[in-house]
Amino acid sequence: MKALTRPTRLAPGARVAVVAPSGPVPEERLAAGLDILRGWDLDPVVAPHVLDRHPEFTYLAGTDADRAADLQTAWCDPDVAAVLCARGGYGAQRMVDLLDWDAIRAAGPKVFLGFSDITALHEAFANRAGLVTLHGPMVAAVDFIKNTRAQEHLRATLFEPETVRVIESGGGAAPLVPGRATGVVLGGCLSLLAADLGTPHARTSARGGLLCLEDVGEETYRLDRALTQLLRAGWLDGVTGILLGSWARCSPYEHVRTLLTDRLVGLGVPVVEEFGFGHGEGALTIPFGVRAELDADTGTLTLEEPALA
């Protein structure tokens, strides 16, 4: 697995577009997130359909075509330096096939940010455009609006990425399997990675990668099913190390931990738990597509070069 192309870091005054590829966006939370971006001296513009609701499927932020058009237009706008997702939910898989990846590649690299359901787009940007993306707090998410740690780690990654080349879990991390490993960072939401198997935009394997996994609101048997699917498909063959994030609103963590141990320890690679990314409070921003070293014993991820150029 090769490192991907890094977008340019943001500078004060940069125009950033906010899009909603997945679920509907609460207007008051969007407004609060936009205020934070303006406080960073950014110029946020909201895509036309961000506050839409699908006429039949109210779990979607507008129609598939409109959500795809918002992302496509924002990405291809030469005045836009970054495309930031408003929230996750569900729906990215329904619109990703409507994107013009030739046009996206031609528009050149720029910052892309999101997590959770946005996992499907992280995979697509890696596989179809060869770009580094950021797995981090979204503009209308409660964690971004209310948590200083989440805000500051994202701000540093966007503006001063050399200051966060060593990503520390903050003390909660512990090794399920000790050791060090190097590879290209990838991953996201476990259930979305499993759902993405066999699609045109997904990688065929995590071989050579440091895999980040987290999820939200899943019972243990459903997490088991997703992990087992990845194992049976051979997708985890050759992975060099695994970072485990939050399992918010899943089964009690002792049950989840037992499952993770059962399914992952047999891979024989370093595995670290509670690394501090995902749906938990104060989530860290993790760059996907950058080569790094994981030290499971100290709970650190050291990037070979800054996330953004």
How would you characterize this protein structure?
The two termini are 20 Å apart. The chain is built from 10 helices and 14 strands. It is globular and about 50 Å long. β8, α8 and β9 form a beta-alpha-beta unit. The protein has 309 residues and is an alpha/beta fold. The strands form 2 sheets. An 8-stranded mixed beta sheet has the order 6-14-13-8-9-10-11-7. Strands 2-1-3-4-5-12 form a 6-stranded mixed beta sheet, with helices on both faces. α8 packs across α9 and α9 packs parallel to α10. The mean pLDDT is 96.
Strand order, largest beta sheet:
6-14-13-8-9-10-11-7
Unreliable parts = none
> With helices defined by DSSP (H or I, 4 residues minimum), what is the helix count?
10
H-E order: EHEHEHHEHEHHEEEHEHEHEEEE
Kindly report the average pLDDT value: 96
Distance between the termini: 20 Å
Shape: globular
Structural class by helix and strand composition:
alpha/beta
Number of extended strands: 14
Helix content: 25-40%
Gyration radius, rounded? 18 Å
Largest sheet: 8 strands, mixed
Task: Lay out the secondary structure.
Layout: E1 15-19, H1 27-39, E2 43-46, H2 64-76, E3 82-85, H3 92-95, H4 101-107, E4 111-114, H5 119-129, E5 133-135, H6 142-146, H7 148-159, E6 166-168, E7 174-177, E8 180-189, H8 190-196, E9 209-216, H9 220-232, E10 241-248, H10 253-264, E11 271-273, E12 286-288, E13 291-295, E14 300-303
Parallel strand pairs: 1-2, 1-3, 3-4, 4-5, 8-9, 9-10, 10-11
Antiparallel strand pairs: 5-12, 6-14, 7-11, 8-13, 13-14
Helix pairs in contact: 8-9, 9-10
